[in-house]
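hey m, so remember when u said the tokens were messed up on ur end? i reran from scratch. heres the input so u can diff it against urs
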Amino acid sequence: MKGIVSLFVLVLLVGCASSAKQVYLPNGNKGWAISCSSHNSDWSDCAQKAGSLCQNRGYKVLGKDSEQVSSMGGSQQFGIYGSTSMKRTVMIECK
């Protein structure tokens, strides 16, 4: 049981994280693709990550995308379970 609780806490911590990947934009400038997907995140999490990347320079939102993602799992002990979450991605360019 202790292992299950530890795994649950780890999943929660990973699920709350947002990630950013530096990319090259069509105009040749560098930009950021920010992913902020978890059960309890929203667009403000993406905006917060963008603000921390660009700091006082500010940023321009080039595009947003979201989709609902479902997952299902199960075991003999706990039965079948499922969940849904939103996969959010925003593309930005620092000013």
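this time it looks ok to me. The first strand starts at residue 19 and ends at 24. if urs says something different then somethings off w ur setup not the seq
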